[in-house]
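## Example pair
The file below holds two records. Each record gives the amino-acid sequence first, followed by its C-alpha cell line.
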Amino acid sequence: MIQQLLDRLADRPEEHVFLGADRITREEFADLVWRYAGGLRKRGARSVVMLAPPGPASLAFLLAALGTGTRLDFVPREGGTDLVRARLESAGSGFVVAGAGLRFALKGPHWIRSPLGLPHYTLWPEIVGIDDIGAAQQRRFGVADEQAAALLFTGGTVSAPAGVVHTVGSLSAVLTQLVGLADGAAGAPAVADGFGGMLAALALGQPIVRPARPARLARQLARLAPANVFLHRHRWPAGAAAGDFRAISFGPATPELVTRLRGLGAGRLWALFGTAEAPLIAADDGSGHPDSVGRLLDGVSARLADGQLWVSGDGVAPRLVDGEWVGEQATGDLVSLSGDEVRLTGSRTGRILSRGRFWYPELYEPTLAPDGGVALVGVSAACDERLVALVADAGDVRRVARAARRIGLPLQGVVVGEIPLCGTGIDRAAARALAARLLG
C-alpha cells in the first residue's frame, strides 16, 4: 500500500490533502514529497531521527523517507541525557530532522531547553530544519517489502535500550488493516492527530484536518461532518452530539470512553489495541466485556506463554534494534484468550499508555531516584491512564517532581506510600492499586 501511495501522489492534483490552516493541494503535497526525497538522496544517510509533530511537512517527509529507503528513527527526546544518548548510539542515525519550532529549542541555551526537558544539544547528531532538506526532486520510487522503514524504541534499560524495526511490508500491512476499519467515503474529510490516521485518510482520498483543542473539538466535528475521526484516546472531548462519523480511537476503550464517543454521535467506533512491536493487534467495537480489548484483526496470530501475549503476522515488526530477525514478538501484556477475543489482565513490564505514548517505568525510575524508592505506575482515568510516581519517602516528593520536569516526563501526580515488592522487584499491580487508592 505504501508503494501505491507514492505512485498516486500526483493524481487529482487540484484536490486537497489537508484542509484548514494546513490547506495544501495534492499537487503541492507531491512537490513537497519529491523535494524532500531529493534532499535525502543528496545527503545519502541510511537513517535519520525525525522530531516533528504530525502535519503536512512531516507527513511528506515520512513518505519521502519511505520512498528513498531512508529509515526513520523515532528517538523520544524525553528521558534524560543517558537514555537519549544510548538510543542514539543504538540507532546510528545520520542526522536529526526537526520541526521549525523545535529546531531552535534543541540547539538553544539551557534556559530554553530545561523547561522542555531537552538534553544538551551536543548529544544530537547534526540538527537540520525540515524546511532545509529540499534539493532537486526525485519523482520515481521503488520500495521493497523487506526495506527497513521505522525504528521504534520500547523498553530495555538505560544502558541497553530495546527497540524494533518495522519494514515497508509491516507498515503496509498495518495501514491496510487501518484502512479496512475506516469509512471509505472518498471526498469526505477525516480528522486525524497522528501519522497512522493521516496515512489512512490519504489512502482513502479523504482530506485531512488536524483536530482542534479539546474545548473546541466537538464543535469542529459538528461543522466538518467527517467520515472518519482518528484520535488517540485522551484527545476525545466530552460534548453534545457532533454528527454521525466513524470513530477510530488508538488505545483500549474504557466504559467512559465508549459513552463519550456515543454521546458525540459516533455511529460506529473502533478502539484499537496495539504496541510498538505490533501497532494493530485487536479492535473493540465497545460492546464487549470491560476487560476486553477486542478481537484479533485479520492477519494477526496470537499465543500465550506464561500468560504473556506473543503475536505474529504481516503487521508485526520483523527485526530488533540489534538487527536480529524474529518471527514473533512478545508484547509484555498479560492476557487471556477466548477464541479470537483478547482480555487484558495486566502487564509484565508495567508499561503505561498515557497521552498517546507508551512509557516504560524501568527506563525512568533510575533517573527519578538513583537510590530507589520510586515506582512509576499508570492510574486509570476517565479515558486514559495518568502517569503517577509512588515514592516511599515524603521528603522525596519535590525531588522526584523536579527530576521528572528535567527529563521531560509528564508526571500527573506524586503520592507517598510503601512500595510493594515481589520476587522480581516492584510489584507493579499492587503499586498501581495503592497509587489509585492514595489518589482517591
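Second record, same layout:
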Amino acid sequence: MFDGPAVWSMEDPRRDSVMDKMMDAIQSWDVSSRRNINYRSFEPILRLLPQSIAPVSQHWATWALYNLVSVYPSKYCPLLIKEGGISLLEKVLELESSHPETKDMAR
C-alpha cells in the first residue's frame, strides 16, 4: 500500500478494495489488547505516518503506536518521544487525507 497505486499491478483484487478491507480489519481490533512484540525502534512504523498515498498504512501505524503507548506507557512513551514520533503524529492531524479515526488516535 505504502508504495502507491502505480506499483499495484494486480487487477484483482483491486487496491481500493484491499485498502477498505484493511481499514475494516484494523477498526475491529481491540486497541487495549496486549501484544507479545518487543520494539527497540519505532522507525519502521514512524515512516508510514507522514504520507498520504495510502491512508490505511498511516492508520495502521497510528493504531500500532496508540496501542503500544496506551498498554505499555512506561516503555513506549519515552521511545515515541526520543524518535520524534510526537511531531509526526502532529503532521497526521494536518493532512487532509488522514481518516478522522486516524486523527482521533493521533491526538
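Notes on the second record: The chain is about 60% helix and 0% strand. The radius of gyration is 14 Å.
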